[in-house]
Amino acid sequence: MLYNTESDMTTTRPVRERSAAFAILLTSLALTALAAGLSAAESPAVQAQGFDELLRPDPVLAALGSGSSPLSPPDLEALALRASGLPETSIPAYQARLEALLDRLEASVSASGAISAAARAEAALGFLHDNALKSYMSDATTLNLLLDTGSYNCVSSAVLYLIALRRLGIESGGIKTMDHAFSVVHAKGRDIDVETTNRYGFDPGSRKEFSNSFGNVTGYSYVPPGNYAARRKIGERELISLVLSNRIAMAEEVGEFRAALAMASDCAALSLETEAGRAEGRKLLLDCVNNLGASLQARRDYASIEALARSAEATLGKDPRITGLLSIAVYNRLLGLFQGKDWQAAVVEADKALESGGIDRAKYLNLVVYAYGNAAQRIGQGGDWLAAVALAKEGLARTGDEASLRRIADLCLQNYAVAAHNRFAALFNKGDFAAAIDVLVEALARVPGNQSLESDLAAARKAAKR
């Protein structure tokens, strides 16, 4: 403060209130709040519907998947066709085509003279490649596509082979690795790998000789065995579930995240035979929940994310990934409320969200500090810095003495002192020393010990005595 008491014409100059610094502080708080999660929704939320249904597996598929093992050949066929995405009305026609193929296979294997289970299983693989498996295609994962076009991949060929061996009464299953699937046949007292994508893939690593009609060896084939460090034996249901797993990946590639989640529910229902299968099925289901949430996030549809997370939690139980998804959705919904007019109602909603576990305390503090800080700024800039102090202190009581609000309260109090000085200066310069003293006495009662105001009061009393 600059003033001069050396002559009777002394004037004092007003001091600028620190509103600029205050605005900078609040801008920082706002950015902190926004950076802690996603930005608030800019468009109306899409009405969330159907998440419970997406998380509930197809009842027919679930019933087939949870029956006794092994499945009968017709049930195994129906399960594979349904997992391929065929509607119920189309399954009988495809099943009839499949039965016709299997009738021919059974006749061919019988005519080949193969007697042992291993020989018959090897003959079945050759028949399928001659009559059904025409061309490898990495995404040809469904049984109906295989029957329609002859296109296949490791999953669809292994599923067809499983069905074929079930028709022949040969014990078989599947092998799953990180990015591949093939079959396994129990014969000759051991498990024999079968790379179903290769016509000569029966028992990889063994040499197959070819003979002419006179019994002379004319050549041989050799398929090297796969070096799979993370191979796991799986049952018939989990092998068929890989059809769904591949379809999920393809659906997500084109943005069909709701369809992917529905298929993940079916996939999980088919992965219950082993503990490892259950864990992988649950992980896939959670992945699809998370991916659907991410797609809703891209549309800023936080209401739907919240509905999805709550449905997932009701179906799958507590899980950190679901909790995180719910926290993001609730936080951003609340952030939209806090940026509206009724910030006090928004604080009440935040209290409820904190109590229910919808948001953690760090996000809660970001929101509440942002709200109280903005409100204190508005009131203070309207001229009532004491009310702004009171509001900041109310926020402090709610948040437990949060440091940012403590700085805001202190800044509001400083601005009150600046405003008191400016009122004093105006009265002092007019010569109304008594009124100037009254202003300072009242102000010092609010901010006792403020050196600037005490200096003003000394100058005003000195001037009043002259």
Notes on the structure:
Among the domains are: 128 residues, no CATH class; 165 residues, C8orf32 fold (Roll). Helix content is 63%, strand content 8%. It contains 19 helices and eight strands. A hairpin with a 4-residue loop joins strand 3 and strand 4.
Main traits of this protein?
63% helix; alpha+beta; 466 residues; 8 strands; C8orf32 fold; two-stranded parallel ribbon; rod-shaped
- Which class of the domain at 70-234 in CATH terms? Alpha Beta
Share in β-strands: 5-15%
Structural class: alpha+beta
- Outline, from the CA principal axes? rod-shaped
The main pleated sheet reads as:
4 strands, antiparallel
Mean pLDDT across all amino acids: 84
The level of helicity is 55-70%
Distance between the termini: 22 Å
Quantity of strands, as a count: 8
Largest beta sheet: what is the strand line-up?
A: 5-4-3-8
What's the helix count? Answer: 19
Element string (H = helix, E = strand): HHHHHHEHEHEEEEEEHHHHHHHHHHH
Contiguous runs where pLDDT drops below 50 for at least 5 residues? 1-11, 17-48, 209-222
- What is the CATH architecture descriptor of the domain at 70-234? Roll
Protein topology:
Elements: H1 19-35, H2 51-54, H3 59-65, H4 73-83, H5 91-111, H6 117-131, E1 135-136, H7 143-149, E2 151-152, H8 154-168, E3 172-176, E4 181-187, E5 190-194, E6 207-211, E7 217-222, E8 232-234, H9 236-253, H10 257-269, H11 275-298, H12 302-316, H13 320-338, H14 343-356, H15 361-381, H16 385-399, H17 403-430, H18 433-446, H19 451-465
Parallel strand pairs: 1-2
Antiparallel strand pairs: 3-4, 3-8, 4-5, 6-7
Helix pairs in contact: 1-15, 1-17, 4-5, 4-8, 4-9, 5-6, 6-8, 8-9, 9-10, 10-11, 11-12, 11-13, 12-13, 13-14, 13-15, 14-15, 15-16, 15-17, 16-17, 17-18, 17-19, 18-19
